[in-house]
Design brief:
The protein contains nine helices and eight strands. By secondary structure, the chain is α+β, with helices and mostly antiparallel strands. About 12% of the residues have low confidence.
Length: 233
């Protein structure tokens, strides 16, 4: 995917208010969000310095893949769009995707727009429930830390992640990546989810159901998740 056009789309979105951004999205735009999520996962998994170990994906209860951006001057903010995929508790397999939005605030000189591809691996059922039922803050409602990567899995240090609810993986390094984790929030985008599935049901009934089939547009993402969970790289 051409990164220039992705960045251009992100820059244009900053000029649109939040209400119009998330209201009545077209299906083709939602399909693009799913395709972007697969791209983000592939990008994270392509490098051993950021790749999620298969053992983590096997233990995970859900995953959120987001394309975030930041912008503004002095008092800035970050926000984005993403996809949530949870494991079905009945069979342990990755279920159908739902849509989420993310955001947060940061203080300091913020010039232009910066893309931050981020993956949140959710390690417990309660945090998955919070992710699809209402907004939760990463700083107060869940313990979010940088997750272990494939290149470090055999080392003994850095075991704090074992007690975390969310393990965070990002292609962006440095201070802002840490701020995005500590000051961010995630909430379900029920308007988008209902529009995509053409249903009156909200995210909980869709994500953890066994009567919604995986849409063909999302099959590649689910296949990719299963592939990485089984140890493929």
């Amino acid at each position: 995917m051409n990164r220039f056009f992705r960045n251009l789309a992100i820059a244009l979105s900053l000029a649109i208010c939040a209400n119009s951004l998330f209201a009545a999205p077209k299906r083709e735009n939602l399909v693009t969000r799913i395709v972007n999520s697969e791209y983000i996962l592939e990008e994270i998994m392509a490098k051993k310095e950021t790749a999620i170990p298969a053992s983590i994906l096997q233990q995970a209860k859900g995953i959120i893949l987001t394309l975030n951006y930041r912008g503004g001057f002095f008092v800035g903010g970050h926000g984005g769009l993403g996809v949530l995929v949870a494991k079905n508790p009945l069979n342990g397999k990755w279920g159908v995707p739902a849509f989420v939005s993310t955001g947060g605030a940061n203080v300091g000189l913020q010039l232009g727009v910066k893309e931050i591809d981020t993956v949140y691996v959710i390690m417990d059922d309660e945090t998955v429930r919070r992710a699809y039922t209402g907004r939760f803050d990463l700083s107060s409602d869940a313990s979010a830390v940088a997750g272990p990567v494939r290149v470090l899995t055999e080392r003994k240090e850095g075991r704090d992640y074992k007690n975390a609810n969310i393990l965070v993986y990002t292609t962006t390094k440095g201070l802002f990546a840490g701020v995005a984790v500590k000051a961010g929030w995630v909430k379900p985008d029920n308007v988008a989810t209902k529009q995509f599935y053409n249903t009156p049901y909200n995210a909980p009934e869709i994500v953890l159901s066994d009567w919604f089939d995986i849409p063909r547009e999302a099959q590649a993402l689910i296949n990719r998740l299963t592939f990485y969970e089984k140890g493929g790289y």
